[in-house]
User: Fold these one by one.
Assistant:
Number 1:
Amino acid sequence: MKETNTQMNTQRTLAKTVTFSGTGLHSGCAIRCDLRPARPDSGIVFILEQPNGSIARIPARFKNIGALTYNTGLRGDGGEILTVEHLLSALHGYQVDNCEIHISDREVPVMDGSASPFIYLLSEAGIIRQNAPRRSLRLTRPVRVDSGDAWIEATPTDDRKLSIEYHIDFPHPSIGAMAATFSEDPHVYAHAIAPARTFGFLREVEYLREKGLIRGASLHNAVVLDDHRIISGELRFPDEFVRHKILDFWGDIVLLGHHLVAHVHAVKAGHRLHAMLVETLLKTPDLLAPVDQKVPHRVLHWQPAVTEASAP
Ligand SMILES: [Zn+2]
């Protein structure tokens, strides 16, 4: 997918609606989901059709962030949706700015634990350009968030893209220390990031089940490890674990509500720290400036209060 700068900077949505169903990782229930085209500047919005007939519209924005334990959840308008990050990651990976996600239950189906099934659906739908400039913000100066020995540092870049270098270090013989980098590119995302599956440890399963989580977990929707080895079969990449961390970040950063132009370096991070970065970016007005779509990197007058997208 080779694009000129001008083309790259227009908003994109789906060419048609696609429907899928699958099991919720936490609920274990069957869930139906439609991905539908949406108008320019509407962003990504979950539309939860609740069993009592009421409908909750929940934009994928930081102000609606909910659960952050083992997944990223959103809540608002009287509803809650869990495990949004892999679908958001696929939409971001394919540079889809506007999409309505109609969902029959409060959790995005886990599918195979990766974003590949969503990429397949988006390819089926087709992606079209819209007559509106992409809402890009560039980082103006370095920023760091940390928690214990985990941290994320974002720095300005001359590139017009978001790029990431991710490091993990798990004290497990099958993981250990690994690192990977990714620079925004839909083709590379689809082949090198989307297939990386979520992973979990067998010893955590009972604890999570007691908390009412991961009722739908199986060896078919995650890389599962006992204390010594991987028990769910072959890895898709030798460094699948760190690639999945990039996949998760790519989904969580959507909650900024804009396309981000920056280079990000993350060490031992996770959903909570990803969210902390988004919160810091939104709460520190001089950290972000609009990217002029015609003249690269010209700073325009901008107030954070006017950047909220309205729901479609
Ligand atoms: Zn994940």
Number 2:
Amino acid sequence: MKLVERTLVLGGFLAAGCVWAQGMDTILVNGKVVSADERGSVHQALAIRDGRIVAVGSAAEVRKLAGPATHAVDLGGRTVIPGLIDSHIHAIRAALSYGTEVHWFGAGSVAEALERVRAAARQSQPGRWLIVAGGWTEEQFKERRRPTQAELVAAAPQNPVYVQWMYGWAMLTPLAHEALGIKSEADLPGGGKYERDAGGNPTGAIVGGIVPLFDKLPRPTFEQKVEGTHKFFRELNRVGLTGVSDPGGFNMSPAEYAPLFKLWRDRQLTLRVAYSYFSQKRGKELEEFRELTQLLPMGFGDEQLKFNGIGERVTFGMYNNDNPGDAEKEEFYKAAKWAADQGMTLTQHWQNGDSVHHLLDVLERVNRDAPIARLRWSIAHLNNGTEASFQRMKALGVGWTMQDAMYYEGERLLKERGEAALRRMPPLRTAMKAGVSIGAGTDAHRVANYNPFVALRWMLDGKSAGGVDLRGADETPDRMQALRMYTSGSAWFTHDEEKRGTLAAGKLADLAVLSGDYLTVPVSRIGAIHSVLTMLGGRVVYAEGEYAKLDPGGAAR
Ligand SMILES: [Zn+2]
């Protein structure tokens, strides 16, 4: 890595000279500006005008570009990175209820998690629902277990409480059972069952049928959803994110996008959002895509918000099905071929590397009939993908969105699959070697935390939330490689790597000034890094501490 780039790198359009006198809108000086480009360039300073980076270079050189109206930000030696981009996060859905839920992100113990429920209960009317909708795992708690019903009742005796773990389990207090009219197992939607203890007594938790169960909970109002979206995106800005690629999800019908669209219309979005559509109608997937996209062509939108195709559920028959039959493959083929004909991007959820050949067979068939290489298709998850699968993906131009699922689930899988399997989950270097495009992310927030620094730390040390060493060094990238996966790597999936993902002249000024130096702090401390100043297109969207006066006031909305 080149430590300091001595030459000032300017955008080509500045070379004409006459624009110099007008000065920059903002300059950031006296820091460590990590371009995250292919060469690993690091500069001292950066200049911004009209939302774009116009120069990177030494502090002295960049200072010369300042005019009387230029705002100069002293970085005080801090590190600046390109704004992070999560290539697979259910952010739009998470945002809808963010303002009305209790969050257990980062809680280190059951006691701390319960304290958050207790605090929410204190601020709520009796009878108001308290909902923890995922984003935590028992391994993050020092007690290494889930909360009991009695503990939740003690924390919130007058409120119905619902605590969901992943998509497999939810604990409900008696008031919650009552409010949902659940008097016996027969009242559970979607084939859910009571969890029972060793003595056969119901624990209060429900296993299975979690998605329809969640659907029965009271939904936030439209205003609460707008507010939640604003708050959640600002929280993402706080952890250095400036972009997301959102694959829809369960319960994400078109109507659920209205709060996001309102913020976009009001020019209040603080993240760049690219979204794809997750089919909602079993057996009518292609019909649904056709209907919805008549007025929503591929790429429709702007730099702030745009439509990025279909997935991560394309057809129901190929979703979480390790052994699809011919009819299911044919149905997927038809939808995918249609997408290829529309020039549309497609992303497909696939967990298991042992069965992904079924999907790859269909993608290869589509590619023979309508080439897909330029469409930036992708497979999400694939935590145990093989070298051969990644080579097939590379040949098709299909990328891989990789998430930190093993941070949460790795210890459980360790018991099922053993150390050797976990050492290569996910096989980051194998995929790099195959030359596949890799985007980083979290799959937050029902199943994971959204924090990119937690994910970056995990990419570098392979340890679970509980601190168990899982992934081996031979499948572990270096810091710059991991950062590039989280920036330009992710940008590839939304056709944006020419516009953002590196700090270089001509790129959008999306960046984060960090609380700690990502390149040099001990890896164990990377998870605690956050942004102290986040800019989107040169506009401050989050600031704290020394920079607090620059903050647009997220709470003021
Ligand atoms: Zn998925």
